[in-house]
Amino acid sequence: MHNRYRTARGVIVRDKVVLLAIHSSFWGAKHQRWGLPGGRIEWRETPEVALVRELREELDLHLAEEDLLDIGAFHYKRALHKLFTTRIEHDIGEYDDSELLDLGWFSASDVQRMSDQGKLHAGYEFEALTRAFRELGNT
User: How many Cβ atoms from other residues are within 10 Å of residue 20's Cβ?
Assistant: First the structure.
């Protein structure tokens, strides 16, 4: 079974803010941009299973597939990326610093401003946040 999506990403919401991360990459410091946590879907993995695994590995965040709400697919670099949202009640203090360089909570207006300034990784983060807030009933 080959998956049609390259990655699974999560819009993690706490109160009225969203979690963004800077992933480690070989592009170097000048190309670092904020993006949604998650990562590559492995062979025979569903997007939900991949996101649950990635969030556990990157953030030590333990969710079940049932905790995820599907907010659609987004195009980036000629591939489809599956996005989900969930609400958590606690902060995330520690993360895997071999995979992530930084982590932060941002309001919708922060994310819009970052989008306008070209500081977001994929460019779909603000639209994903808008869908997530609508799905979660958090306007």
Answer: 25
Q: Domain ranges in the chain?
A: 5-136
Neighbours of 64 (CB within 10 A): 9
Q: pLDDT value at position 51?
A: 97
User: pLDDT (tens digit, 9 = 90+) per residue, 13-25?
Assistant: 999 999 999 988 6
Whole-prediction pTM value? 0.90
Q: How many CB atoms sit inside 10 A of residue 135's CB?
A: 18
Alpha-carbon span 131 to 76, nearest angstrom: 17
Helix, strand or coil for residue 131?
Answer: helix
CATH number for the domain whose boundaries are 5-136: 3.90.79.10
